[in-house]
Amino acid sequence: MKRHILFSIVLSALVVLPIESTEVIRLDLQSFLEEYPQDGDGKWVNTYSGDYVSLDFDVFRFTHMTHAIQAQGTDEHGMQYWDGFTLCTSGDNTDYGFAGSSDGWIDHQWGCMAGGGLDTEGQTVHGAPYMVAYWGYNYEEDGVHSLQIDFTDDMTHRPLGVWICNHPWPYYGIEHDDGFAHSFADNGAHFNLIIHGLDEEGKEAGMPITYPLASFHDDALDISSEWKWVDLSSLGQVNGIYFTMESSDMSGILGMNTAAYFCLGGMEILEHVDEIPRPAGLEADALDENSVKVTWHKVDDAAYYRLYVDSVLVDSTETTSFIFTDLKTYTSYRFFVQAVSEYGESSDWGYTSARTKDLTPPTPPQNVHVTEVGMYKIVIGWDAGTDNIAVDRYAVYVNGKRYSRPKYTSVSITGLDAGTTYQIEVETLDTSENASERVSVQATTLSSPTAIDETKEDKKMTVYTIDGRKTDGRPVKGQVSIVQTNKGTSKQIRL
Questions:
Q1: How confident is the model at residue 66, as a pLDDT?
Q2: Residue 395 belongs to what domain range?
Q3: How many domains does the chain have?
């Protein structure tokens, strides 16, 4: 049965109007419990087995990965890990991180905040199966995703939606610290699940859908312990989907502190329907500060293509590339391409994103000056440079060699030789690594005290201790001081 999809553009939001549905294909976990038997903890017995790379349920194929670290000095496997999906029936929603430690969760990863899976009516039933998902973000690669669902009939399908529930580990870690995660207590804190569509080449298809698993706003924590239906119809016809996650609770290169788990209780897709395919293979290349070139593969049935920026129709073309112009500098945009047949049939949207370039260098730092000189160090300061987007940091060079990249408008240069003149340069860097012209200043470190000739005091002077530390005022009586005046540098003892 041919279906026609209408698109309505309202500001920047894509609205898909109701469509006449064909047969719905539902994920049925219950009928596969014998194929994927459970252990005493309520998890699939082969969760840690390396013999399985997926769990298959009719047309749905869920990724599954295992990893083992060899015990030091032996041929035996030490710690074992799993990523992706595993089938569970535990329903345990106990808080095992109540003591502020994650240790208790290692043996209790199989629970679900709702207390069980779903029956055919969408009701929670203790003992009913569900999938526990763990996002192994360290293993993400192009075309390989830790949390991926493929359709094994090699056909495109239109996802209708998926049942999602919070997993106990991140749920309680967000409510209170669990040894890694920090509780959400500030407005803007968030933990999101992101659902992506995949085309036949394994590339992004359709605009990703973000579902908030937890957020802190209006001075209150918003987090659910129930199964929630997440509408996926805006993805259009895809060859599969995959999940990623994001959290405001991050820890540098280690990634999220929030435990990267969620639960999946069911999924519905429509059977494949022949229709004009969406443009695939979209690639975006920022050309300059105000334009981006987008290319895609030819769609055989397409008479022309509609072109959108952030869901707003801007133009059309009969070719397979287009340069979007009049964009803002260093700004992220979403680009959509829709194939249209000679009969006016429209495809789903092909999707990609890019950020325009920032080619404008910042202004140089001003008033670069020496603020302190020692025998082995020089301290310099300067007034901030400016940029059309934002200044990120500065670069400091000593005799042509880069010394540091400070965030602030001063730096202490150490490890220098005594009595030596140095050429010091400073440049401003912006967020795109554009560099300003360098501004230079010369400075000479203090000589070794034994090589300084004694001279008389001068009213205009700078006083340092014998080890090169700047002092306030005049030399201290009875102590050796190093004095800089307009007549030179000297070692003095004030009587």
A1: 87
A2: 366-444
A3: 3
